[in-house]
Write a sequence for this structure.
């Protein structure tokens, strides 16, 4: 089974950047970054944003496990 | 990607703490779960400052965790008994905002204009748990202070690139005594399948500070090895927790807001630590108001006058001192011996 490097890197990239204090745009407030992050994920078919019940339904219907990532914008 | 349903959670407001238990000091944590709530495993760990994060997580490690999870999922529900202990016990409160310290938070984030202020950070749960004990006049037990011990606590270094594979064994450690060897792939600990380092930490976290034995099943050169890790009273104290974000609040509680670091000046006192900083605001200024100043060289603190670390000092204070009880500090400052006392919180 293969997981694309892009997918894996996406999951880990914000963790590593955040660990070093990096933010995507140093000029934006944290509130703005969180809202921008939410908008980005709304347009991303790979991720469900902050909605456990929707994720559970999707996983149940598809017979798949869930990968639940707890990650905020630091 | 297609083999998982991926969910991103950005806050702890409203999150079911019965179901979602992990090291809340992580800024990145993953739980692999069946939609019926059965937890297959966890991923995400660190034991150092930001520049060390890549030593604890990796793309290769994430890949191996995903692959291991899919294998467990494939065997579910026939293998369901393997996962019983991956769910934690009952938390003090079912959701974070129900803790007394967080009663001003709500179950949902305010996306209007109060996003950051309304968001409960993961580490606040650790903070709230400790404050609840302090407010009840209780000591903070090692199981709550020395959280999610790293494998190094028992003498093992695990390769962050490969599930729970041993890269190093410390001589004269519990791991060495158990017969663990570099190269061993620890597949099970405490009867639970491991998909990552975080899973091994989960098992250690469930182990009492008074000690216990942990059965291990490892693969060594293609063969199965059954080992037993024996931990004795005090084993949890070996973990240095001062890198954790929740240590900021522990410094308020136990040190009156001081930060203590190793004194590398060349003329350190026998304790070997000094006051790097003493907080200036609110409840973090308690030690400063009592007389603490940056660069104070610690001669004695809470009865400790020999070589020590900030973690040991905090641990000793929280082992012995209830809320409101004093801590006495003796320091050298400008060649003079000065003494002050502050109350713990």
């Amino acid at each position: 089974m293969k997981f694309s490097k892009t997918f894996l890197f996406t999951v880990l990239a914000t963790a590593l950047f955040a660990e070093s204090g990096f933010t995507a745009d140093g000029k934006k407030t944290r509130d703005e970054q969180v809202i921008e992050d939410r908008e980005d994920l709304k347009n991303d078919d790979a991720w469900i944003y902050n909605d456990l019940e929707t994720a559970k339904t999707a996983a149940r219907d598809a017979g798949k496990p869930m990968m639940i990532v707890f990650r905020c914008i630091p | 990607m297609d083999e998982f349903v991926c969910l991103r959670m950005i806050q702890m407001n409203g999150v079911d703490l019965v179901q979602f238990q992990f090291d809340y000091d992580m800024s990145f944590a993953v739980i692999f779960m069946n939609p019926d709530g059965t937890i297959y495993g966890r991923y995400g760990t660190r034991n150092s400052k930001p520049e060390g994060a890549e030593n604890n997580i990796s793309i290769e490690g994430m890949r191996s965790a995903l692959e291991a999870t899919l294998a467990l999922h494939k065997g579910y529900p026939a293998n369901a008994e393997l996962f019983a202990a991956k769910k934690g016990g009952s938390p003090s409160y079912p959701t974070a905002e129900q803790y007394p310290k967080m009663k001003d938070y709500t179950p949902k984030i305010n996306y209007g204009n109060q996003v950051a202020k309304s968001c409960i950070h993961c580490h606040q749960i650790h903070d709230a748990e400790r404050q609840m004990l302090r407010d009840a006049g209780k000591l903070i037990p090692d199981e709550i202070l020395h959280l999610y011990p790293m494998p190094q606590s028992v003498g093992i270094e695990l390769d962050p690139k490969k599930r729970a594979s041993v890269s190093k064994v410390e001589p004269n450690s519990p791991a060495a005594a158990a017969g663990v060897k570099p190269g061993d792939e620890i597949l099970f600990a405490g009867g639970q399948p491991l998909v990552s380092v975080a899973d091994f930490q989960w098992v250690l976290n469930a182990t009492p500070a008074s000690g216990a034995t942990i059965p291990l099943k490892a693969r060594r050169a293609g063969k199965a090895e059954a080992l037993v890790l024996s931990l004795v009273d005090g084993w949890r104290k070996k973990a240095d927790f001062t890198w954790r974000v929740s240590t900021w609040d522990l410094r308020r509680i136990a040190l009156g807001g001081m930060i203590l670091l190793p004194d590398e000046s060349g003329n350190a006192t026998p304790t070997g630590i000094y006051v790097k900083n003493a907080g200036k605001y609110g409840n973090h200024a308690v030690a400063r108001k009592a007389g603490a100043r940056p660069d104070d060289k610690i001669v004695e603190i809470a009865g400790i006058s020999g070589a020590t670390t900030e973690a040991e000092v905090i641990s000793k204070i929280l082992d012995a001192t209830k809320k409101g009880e004093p801590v006495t500090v003796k320091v050298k400052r400008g060649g003079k011996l000065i003494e002050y006392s502050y109350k713990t919180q």
